[in-house]
Write a structure and sequence with these properties.
- This protein is an alpha/beta fold.
- The protein folds into 2 domains: about 1-30, no CATH class; about 45-135, Immunoglobulin-like (Sandwich), CATH 2.60.40.420.
- The protein contains 2 helices and 8 strands; from the N terminus they run ααββββββββ.
- The strands form 2 sheets. It has a 4-stranded mixed sheet, with no helix packed on it. Strands 3-8-7-5 form a 4-stranded mixed sheet, with no helix packed on it.
- Strand 7 (about 115-120) and strand 8 (about 130-135) form a beta hairpin.
- It is elongated.
- The termini are far apart.
């Protein structure tokens, strides 16, 4: 069996198969997951948070939102500020909505890191007044 494998690796087909194997292993390591893990979350495991952009704020008071490590959150965003452009961005991440004009909606997904920390979410156009906190906290089991 070992001799057959050695012989196969000397062929172009064998070398190509070995290369593809290494590329797949590197890809899964890069993704940080095992090959058996699905990258797409199950719909019932996604928490939805509605944020309306109105009167130069998110949800009227730029709330502090508590998140659990590892959860997947969908932010549903609606711009209700007539004549204003807004967007949603979680600072320190690449999570960003598209620019929304009055009446437009968008959604963004955020897989919460497993470590406790605090993030700031903003409208980049009005970051001095349109910002809130996302607090990643381990919650005690009840």
């Amino acid at each position: 069996m070992v001799e057959r494998i050695k012989k196969e690796l000397k062929t172009l087909r064998g070398q190509a198969a070995l290369f593809v194997g290494f590329v797949l292993i590197a890809f899964f390591i890069w993704l940080g997951m095992s090959p058996q893990t699905s990258a797409k979350p199950i719909e019932r495991d996604i928490r939805t948070i509605h944020l309306e952009m109105k009167d130069m704020s998110f949800a009227s008071d730029n709330p502090t939102i508590e998140l659990s490590p590892g959860e997947v959150v969908r932010f549903l965003l609606t711009n209700l500020d007539e004549g204003m452009k807004h967007e949603f961005h979680i600072q320190g991440t690449n999570i960003r909505s598209r620019v929304l004009t009055y009446g437009q909606k968008d959604s963004v997904f955020f897989r919460v890191p497993i470590h406790e920390r605090e993030y700031i979410y903003v409208c980049s156009f009005h970051a001095l007044i349109m910002q809130g906190k996302l607090q990643v906290k381990n919650k005690p089991i009840q």
